[in-house]
Amino acid sequence: MAETTSTNEEKLPLNGRRAIPPNNSNDEENEVPEMEAFGLIPRGFNPRDYLRVVDIYMFKDPHEINKQEHHTDKYYNPKLIVRRGQPFQIQIDFNRPYKPETDQFWLEFLMGRYPQQNKGTYIPILVGNVLKPGQWGAKIIHRENNSIRLSIMSSTACIIGKFRLYVAVWTPYGILRTRRNSATDTYILFNPWCQLDAVYLDDDKEREEYVLNDVGIVFHGNAEDIKSRSWSYGQFEENVLDACLFLMDKAELELSGRGNPVKICRVASAVINSRDDNGVLVGSWDNTYDYGVAPSAWTGSVDILLEYYSSKQPVRYGQCWVFAGVFNTFLRCLGIPARLITNYSSAHDNNANLRVDLFLDDEGKVDTRLTKDSVWNYHCWNEAWMTRPDLPVGFGGWQVVDGTPQETSDGMYRCGPASVQAIKHGHVCFQFDAPFVYAEVNGDIFYTKMEKNGTQVVESIDTARIGQLIVTKEVGGDGMMDITEEYKFREGSDEERLALEAAVMYGVKKQSTEDAAYQPQTDIDMDFQVQKAVLGNDFKVTITFRNKSHNSYTVTTYLSGNIVFYTGVTKSEFKKQSFSAKLKPSSSSSFDIVIKSSEYMSDLLEQASFHFFVTARINETGKILAVQKATTLEIPTLRIKTKGEMVAGKEMSVIVEFTNPLKQALENVTLRLEGPGVLRTIRKQFGRIPVNSTLTWEVKCIPMRPGLRKLIASLNSDALRHVYGELNVQIQKP
What we know:
This protein is mainly beta. It folds into four domains: about 35-190, Immunoglobulins (Immunoglobulin-like); about 205-505, Alpha-Beta Complex (Coagulation Factor XIII, Chain A, domain 2), CATH 3.90.260.10; about 525-630, Sandwich (Immunoglobulin-like), CATH 2.60.40.10; about 640-730, Immunoglobulin-like (Sandwich), CATH 2.60.40. The chain is built from eleven helices and 40 strands. The strands form ten sheets. Strands 1, 2, 3, 4, 5, 6, 7, 8, 9, 10 and 11 form an eleven-stranded mixed β-sheet that branches. Strands 22-19-18-16-25-26 form a six-stranded antiparallel β-sheet, with helices on both faces. A hairpin with a 3-residue loop joins β36 and β37 (about 680-690). The protein is elongated, with a radius of gyration of 31 Å. This is Coagulation factor XIII A chain.
């Protein structure tokens, strides 16, 4: 009997604007007919008389040619994963030898529910004699008995994601297709090894680091006292690739836009945070983390992404390095070279005027009521490497993307991609969000006093502090690389002034100093030093005055010690001290103030950050000197050891130890341990650790992958957070 297509299929939800609903899910599928008839089929037609596909072999194991040549052998995923613009091989077994003169077959790659050829979601590939670089094509490279081996080239502009593969055979009465078979699904990723790809990176060591390294380092603390910790990106772990593709579905990025790294970065920077789109992570900066995990307790991205992928609900909680760590995993997983950046003394300036206003009251203290801007001790974001065909030549390369929700951009909490090169030269007119990033790394701190009559008097201006150091992990090692020069010219150089003038011309607001009375003080210099201290100990702050004039002066000095969030926002003032001092002509004098542990321990926040603010009034002239500094206490570390031989596939032990250094017991202690390729994240709760006692935790595991791996542990408790430990381990081949 002749086949007809049924008309009672579900009706598509149509609207007046488009004939096809939006195609923005990689997960959904359409029904593909196995027999697509050209018309009525004669009674005697038997599909078995024609060429038929018996089997398709994808060469998809990690040791086989495709994953080896495409640098995808580390993905813990049984399906074929290849990079675009580079040939890969498959083998098709037919029911009889293939005869090129009479047999005609082609391949079809499909994505989403409404595949369309002009959108790049339906790709028919005919077999030809030659592969053209950067364009879809296939050619036979080997024929034997009933089998042929094909080399397939994908387009360098191909959509990133998971394609379904069908083989179609032509017969006089219709097209015969292979059955839907998820084993032949093919993931296609960005290709930094391919010169025609928008993310091409020409240095092999950099590709090894920025695409293939699954652990990294987060630098935190402050510029005077840099601290570092490891972070497990885990972009190759089981289900992480699917979770990353799900993020693009969640962001409702049209499938046809998924070959463009600029679009992907822009939507990802919004979906990494939960503001306005129920994205991956809920930000919390208030030191209370009920019903969630404290940001400092995470050791890597995998738990966060997999929890989001399975629950479809935002994961609690993140702060800037957590957003940046997860974003880095997303980018590297899809094949976009990426690195995590730390900017020390990052300006969060609410009105993008390149000026952070700190208002002082009569005593010279910061007036928290009037002061709206803040300087973060540090802020982490990401850089992603790509060309920018949407901008003039010269602005490709590293682009700033930031998933931490700070300000809205085009109505959503997102930031970037913004060209680092454009930021350096002040060309902030080029999309996206360059003025915001420019203000984070440039700008001046104005100490302004409000007089009783409402006039503002600028007491001092600090031009060098904001964006004083910008760093990332070095290539191929665990050290730090200073990249400040990529964002800005040397402080005070002609080029720096020019870049600033360009930025102002392109609309960055800069208030001139003339609009407020400002005469700087030149006779006397003041500075202070904070002694390095371990959490739980006393330490001292030394204030030094240098009187360069021939006059004697008396100064009234006020020191304010505050416990701050790393965002520069004050939680509480724990130390106030004033003193008067005589300054002799042409001489220096120093004064010590002791800070006792009992003064700060009760209010301490997780990053053990203090902010000291010293103001001094010269009684004879009424001038005010102001200096402020952030400082971080040394937090004790976890010790990690291993026991037994470390061989892939054999059981070994990992031991984590910690001694409580505080003068109080630690309550509600949680330990986490993870290491990509060695063990999945394990959590353990301990009730309490008494004063001076040592906790020991032994974990048995079977490492999967040989090579140099990293174990990362964190400890979290009510009174103590940001405790980390790490260990490099060499896993031998069995």
